[in-house]
Amino acid sequence: MKVSEFRAGQLPTDVRRLVTEAILVAREAGRILRRRFRTAIPVSGKGPGDIVTAADVEVQAMIARRLRRAFPTHGILAEEGLDATAGTEWRWIVDPLDGTKNFARGIPSFCVSIGAEREGRVELGVVLDPIQEELFVGARGGGAWLNGRRIHVSEVSDLAGAFLGTGLPNRVRRFAGPVARVFSRFAARCLGVRDRGAGALDLCYVACGRFDGYWEVDQSPWDIAAGGLIVEEAGGRMSNFRGGPFDIYGGETVASNGKIHDRMLALLGPRGGMPRGYRPPVRRR
Question: Alpha-carbon distance 124 to 199, whole Å?
């Protein structure tokens, strides 16, 4: 997809250049990931249940370099230890490789996620699946798109016919029991539940109607910033587990086509699998 096919000129003026650059940067990141995929690549542990590959590091360095050159006054928050945010109006929120475990094992389910927030509100999101060559784009007030075509959430209104996505948090040892209980509630009442291992991509699947809903606990802002906005711009609904405003720093993600949202909230319950005394992995700054 060429940038011109997206009709960037029709976007709000204040995000037009940002979206165009984010698409170009995501495309370059995708080329790196395709080249590195299923090769002998170094993998190291970040903590229990969490890993990082040399591709994560390489792609993040490239994205940060490009964004700093294009937008020197912007902050950047990225998964692999980058937090340069002080005093910035705009901040980029980047996951250079969402689905690292899949990538490391040769499973073709991963993506690049690039979002940007302005004074705390996400204004744009770009998510690229480099294997399927699918580029999802959303801009606040400008709609959501997949490879140049406008996308919308599904029309499924019955939970029994709903196809849902979810994921296990990296800190799964703290969540295993309650997460399993919530999973079983959904599995018994819907068409099916899938954990594909790349939350940003799952959110985009809600946006284009492949999934009807999605939930997950303990996510970081780079997992959900871009995808969450794309869902909203595709006509979907985002919230926390109580139905309150969605916060990318809150650790609670519920996404849906809007029609099954309240039923999902009822099954999640007010805590949705969160342990008492829970603190999200990344706090707002």
Answer: 17
Burial of 249 (0-12, 13-18, 19+ CB in 10 A): middle
Single-letter amino acid, residue 284: R
Is the distance from CB of 41 to CB of 100 less than 8 angstroms? no
Domain spanning 3-150: which CATH class is it, in words? alpha beta
The CATH number fitting domain 159-268, selected from 3.90.650.10, 3.40.50.20, 3.40.190.80, 3.40.50.700: 3.40.190.80
Give residue-wise pLDDT tens across range 20-78. Answer: 999 999 999 999 999 999 999 999 998 777 899 999 999 999 999 999 999 999 999 99
pTM of the model: 0.94
Secondary structure (DSSP) of 171-212: THHHHHHHHHHHHHHHHTTSSEEEE-S-HHHHHHHHHTTS-S
Residue 270 pLDDT > 70, yes or no?
no
H/E run at residue 78: strand 75-78
- Integer CA distances (angstroms), 240 to 8, 70, 92, 159, in order: 31, 34, 22, 19
